[in-house]
Amino acid sequence: MSSNGRVGMLLDTSKCMGCRGCQVACKQWNQLHAEKTEFTGTYQNPPQLAGQTWTLITFNELPGKGPNGAPKWLFRKEQCHHCGEATCLQVCPTGAIRKSKEGIVYIDQGICAGCKYCVETCPFHVPHPDHSTGTARKCWLCMDRVVNGLMPACATACPTGAVQFGPWDEMLAAAKARVATLKQDGQQAQVYGDESMLGGLGVMYVLTEPPEAYGLPAQPRLPHARIAVKWLLGVIPGLAILIAVFKSLRKEAEAKA
Asked: Is the model's pLDDT at 54 over the cut of 80?
């Protein structure tokens, strides 16, 4: 582990071949069932993260960017980023969302009320409601494995080394070194998720195209305005109920007098 005990995962898109081995491993280890989805006309299956789908290989096509004008495929492992500054943790009203000493952001299913605040405010649209449990669910970086000295299931299944796991600062150093190597080979590359982004992403990327090409926000920000609106939408009805109860009690008191 790093000096502060934080763990990290590096997803190198230049090595990912879209085999979905990580998807299968995640389903198997966490005992998640297959989602019922309709055909969307794309290779991506299922189409998005869900309450029973915590990691997903996205297929992103860039027309004319490949050899001889062929399409170029960009594969990305989508999952929770375990942000250093986690929006979901900040907005959770029950304290169900917590951060472990290893920096893993997880949802305590025994406390989650299913309010969906985390679903609405995550800048990466990661948490999703699980209709079978009535709670929000997402990747927990296989915390049960990590605390026992094992790697997350997805990292053990990757055949190309596109998924790496270890101390956070070592993963960041590896990402920077990989970017330097790719640039020496004449490719464009960048680290996505360093210290400047939401306190550093616990799950970071090496990208060979701009973030938007992978479906990632270029500059993810905490949606403070949306958070404020959500809290107000909860507070205002609560105040209205309290005022109504107070008026009712006062009328009863006046009637008795």
From this structure: yes
